[in-house]
DUF72 domain-containing protein
Amino acid sequence: MGGIRVGTSSWADRTLIDSGWYPRSANTPAGRLAHYAQRFDLVEVDTSYYALPAVETAAAWADRTPPGFTFDVKAFSLFTGHPTPTAALPADLRPAGAPDRVRWRDLSPDTYDELWSRFRAVLEPLAAADRLGVVLLQLPPWLRYGEPARQRLVDLAERCRPYRVAVEFRNGSWFAGDNGFDTLDLLHRHDLSYVCVDMPQGHPSSVPPLLVAPADPAVVRFHGHSPDWAGGDKQAKFRYAYSDDELRHWADQLVELAGQSTEVHVLFNNCCAGQAQRDAARLAELLDVPVPAAVPGPREPGDRRGSGAPARPGGPR
């Protein structure tokens, strides 16, 4: 049976910082990451969805975490087809006269290739330190099942190689009728992990929480079951506290999933004022996941390498 890692989909969310989950002594990006890594051995880098981090920042993340710690890194929004603020692109790659938001087709092939090159450069120090888990491709909710979308997914995955890739679908058509068998076969043939999502059902973006492992590692993300999923703002959509009964049920399910995979990554995305950290800690306790080893302390004052993860801006998770 594979091992189970538990963590959260951010360690620097503004509501988390304001919640008091971090002690007063953890008052810098370096200190917060070190504190987090004393409690969990997995985290999702969410800020990379909104902008490309500096390579030096990724190197600092690796330096500030112990051996065995893992970062799952979400792909830049432009790559997965989301309209992306032009200001989020590196200044030297912003097309002249572009609108406020651009999609990948709005860029020249050379610019698009260069963005991918810089994204892979961010992954390199994490991979070199054995800290990189998967690159998470979170597909947009309007990307429906079909041959063009299937080919688009394969092309995106190839751009991420040689790193492991996990796919989160956000449109129910990928699992409607027999499409689900074809979708899972596609993932298996291209060695892509399926992201099982626990989320409200019955919405166009809903996908079933299938506990399957077409590739390693298996990945499970917890969005919660807010009644405001359809029309609420970001905080309302993800404001949810898992009950102990729910977590016990999931603990049993995750043990079964671990029997299909060499490793299971479990990430809580109900990131509202430390709730994700509380739920993750309780699930880890139920699963008897060991506490990580001690981590390196923050760098000395004056060392400016890496600024840590900025607070999450608004937008979909």
The longest helix spans residues 109-128. Strands lie at 3-8, 42-45, 70-74, 84-85, 101-102, 132-138, 165-168, 193-198, 218-222, 263-268. Residues 120 and 160 are 7 Å apart (CA to CA).
